[in-house]
Write a structure and sequence with these properties.
Helix content is 46%, strand content 13%. The protein has helices at residues 5-12, 26-41, 58-66, 79-87, 113-127, 142-151, 170-178, 194-198, 214-226, 252-257, 263-269, 286-301, 310-317, 324-337, 346-349, 361-377, 382-388, 393-402, 407-411; strands at 18-22, 49-53, 71-74, 132-136, 160-164, 203-207, 228-229, 238-239, 243-248, 272-276, 304-308, 341-344. The structure holds adenosine-5'-triphosphate (ATP). Residues 1-90 form the Response regulatory domain.
Length: 413
């Protein structure tokens, strides 16, 4: 039985990664999870912890991640898969770039199948040197993914320069992107190399690329094609070696088809493609995200909040999160501010999370329509109608009651 944190951290001192094999149920392993959490919150340097478990339940995965594991693997596992996972955390035995934590400790949190696949995509794309288009709703983590791609690429010794295309007017665009010579215009007291040159041998992140004006699109395309930039007021051009990462919440395929976005630029950017699904489609990630946010806030604000109750996590999972992870982060921060210790509970949440809305009238109307249609097609036979609607007879009755359709109503359809 391990109980001494100091003894264990001593043993782990020169370890690149610790593989922990756990045989037993989630409940059985709880004392060990608590021990791991203590280990991680101690001041000692702890290597990445990878857990390999026989228990494949979601609860076990959440407990592992809450305890601070960087990876949770299920038995049985192919040796090659295990080796590949371990090698990501051991710099000297990997041929692939290591998935590093970002400056400020920011990492991609989530263990849903979508997020696991996303990590692989990021590694593959980062190892190539292609331009990448990152799409997804606002707040899904597009900028975070751009940072991860850059940090895991061979360009990571050079800067990642961010440029918000929606925030810069055309009048400033050229000087901001391409730079200027001293005296090029009134107020240009000193020369400026511009964002593209600042990103030389590194990457440029064009945020909100779908909002880039046609003029800017033309200029950027030219810079990509010629691999050269010319400062305002300069006579000579400078060669550049830049990788472009671009993000948008628009459907760029549609914009390009409608000629609102240049197709030639679209094809240049759309080489590597990463899509970030909204949080409502991967709610299993919420628990891990909340835990990481609390750990982060504890560090930043010097508090000792222990975590969130399971009830609050369930309540959070009932909400649709139109603002995605950013909105979740804001909600947790607002709740956290009112707490010094203990666990965040559902009561704390009632002040900050919008009430669940009843289904919109239109969706209710749609449901009534489809019920009536199914019953009419099946001459009022409820078993057959239930079959048509892909539900049980009992569910059909519940739906009829919810829509205010009596059995007689239904029979008369
Ligand atoms: N999987 C994740 N793990 C940890 N933090 C995340 C994750 N996804 C998003 N975040 C955090 O959520 C916030 C919003 O993310 P980000 O700014 O990358 O979103 P975005 O898609 O670029 O948004 P926008 O389109 O509005 O610019 C950031 O603080 C980011 O660190």
């Amino acid at each position: 039985m391990i109980s001494d944190v100091a003894q264990v951290t001593g043993a782990l001192e020169d370890t690149s990664v610790a593989l922990i094999v756990l045989n037993g149920s989630e409940q059985f392993c709880q004392p060990f999870f608590r021990f791991l959490a203590d280990l991680r919150s101690s001041k000692a340097t702890v290597p990445p912890l990878v857990i390999l478990a026989g228990d494949s339940s979601e609860g076990f995965a959440i407990s592992s991640l809450r305890a601070g594991a960087v990876e949770y693997l299920r038995e049985p596992i192919e040796l090659a898969t295990l080796a590949q996972c371990i090698s990501r955390f051991v710099p000297e035995c990997t041929t692939q770039p290591k998935e590093t934590a970002l400056t400020g400790g920011e990492v991609l949190v989530g263990n849903s199948p979508v997020l696991q696949a996303l990590r692989t995509q990021i590694r593959l794309v980062a190892a190539s040197d292609c331009n990448v288009l990152i799409t997804g709703e606002t707040g899904t983590g597009k900028e975070l993914v751009a940072q991860l791609i850059h940090r895991n690429s061979r360009r990571n010794k050079n800067p990642l320069v961010c440029f918000n295309c929606a925030a810069i007017p055309d009048t400033l665009l050229e000087s901001e992107l391409f730079g200027y010579e001293r005296g090029a215009f009134t107020g240009a007291a000193a020369a400026n190399q511009g964002k593209l040159m600042a990103a030389n041998r590194g990457s440029v992140f064009f945020d909100e690329i779908g909002d880039m004006s046609p003029l800017a699109q033309a200029k950027v395309l030219r810079a990509i094609e010629t691999k050269e930039v010319q400062r305002l007021g300069a006579t000579r051009k400078h060669e550049t070696d830049i990788r472009i990462l671009a993000a948008t919440h628009h459907n760029l395929d549609e914009l390009a088809s409608a000629n609102t976005f240049r197709r030639d630029l679209y094809f240049r950017l759309n080489v590597g493609r990463i899509y970030l699904p909204p949080l409502r489609e991967r709610k299993v990630d919420i628990a891990g995200l909340v835990d990481c946010m609390i750990v982060d806030l504890n560090k930043r604000l010097g508090r000792r909040v222990e975590g969130a109750t399971s009830a609050i996590v369930r309540r959070l999972a009932q909400y649709d999160w139109p603002g995605n992870v950013r909105e979740l982060k804001n909600v947790i921060e607002r709740v956290f501010i009112m707490r010094e210790s203990g666990r965040i509970s559902e009561d704390d949440l009632s002040f900050v999370l919008p009430e669940r809305k009843p289904p919109a009238a239109s969706s209710l109307d749609e449901e009534i329509h489809s019920l009536r249609k199914a019953l009419a097609t099946c001459n009022g036979n409820k078993s057959k109608a239930a079959e048509t609607l892909n539900c049980s007879r009992m569910t059909l009755y519940r739906k009829l009651a919810k829509c205010g359709l009596s059995k007689q109503d239904a029979a008369g359809i």
